[in-house]
């Protein structure tokens, strides 16, 4: 039996002000037991039916369409442009873009539609489109990355949906800033980990640094991805829809086994409140809190652990091509940015001031 069988019916709704998925079925002790074993469903006495939180995990489990944008986005779009917004999202789905890209593009495209109000987006001239991006620069003062996101989304609509590539011939892109990755020293990483008392939180940060994972990859790890015998971990469908294998640090094997025996996760290695994947924001908050406790005042987010992983491997002489594979970079050029931080020979150069 599974949730795609005819026994269960699902409906989206609200309960106590939160988005939920209602689950209805004919009363049957076997079905109730199955529901309890595979979800963290709760019974609503007022509605007389079961429900779970409306999230990515349960939508996938129940075979429901994944949520791209909330009502707060749709409600601001004029009825004139709503069909085009729907068409835009459908085209993104047909292209099999990732949920994050779907959400980012949808919100960026919606920003243009808000301003247009009842003016049809498909009737925009290249000059008006150019004025819009100038408005993003001068009035909204958006960052280079934010403007790139809006250009990418609007460009997708005109070139992929409307097949009008000439709309963007005279619209220049802002030059991206060339920044170096923000990283931590080995001593700082150790200091941060020592501030985390919760074994689950500590293990998540250890994995983030010890395997060079993105925070989204850490929270989406499944029990089936861990191969403790061969000391490898499968990172499934990460950025760019690619699978890759990474090395499982030996030092955490005992902690990993103890964690499993204590928490008994079912699908995801690190479960959230309702048995779904642990929240990215919650793990970011764990890292930030540990940073504060450790007294480290660097402006570094949890992604800095991934940067530190690559930097520290380079410092110990690991071949950059292996680091590229472990990080899941398409191009070696992306990985080479770490050589600007770890060029030992360059840092051994003495300043002329020291030789006066």
From TrEMBL:
Lineage: Bacteria, Pseudomonadati, Bacteroidota, Flavobacteriia, Flavobacteriales
Tyr recombinase domain boundaries: 179-351
Family membership: Belongs to the 'phage' integrase family.
Taxonomic superkingdom: Bacteria
GO molecular function terms attached to this record: DNA binding
Span of domain Core-binding (CB): 79-162
Gene Ontology biological process terms in this record: DNA integration; DNA recombination
Name of this protein: Integrase
Keywords: DNA integration, DNA recombination, DNA-binding
PROSITE patterns noted in UniProt: CB (PS51900), TYR_RECOMBINASE (PS51898)
Keyword DNA-binding belongs to the record: yes
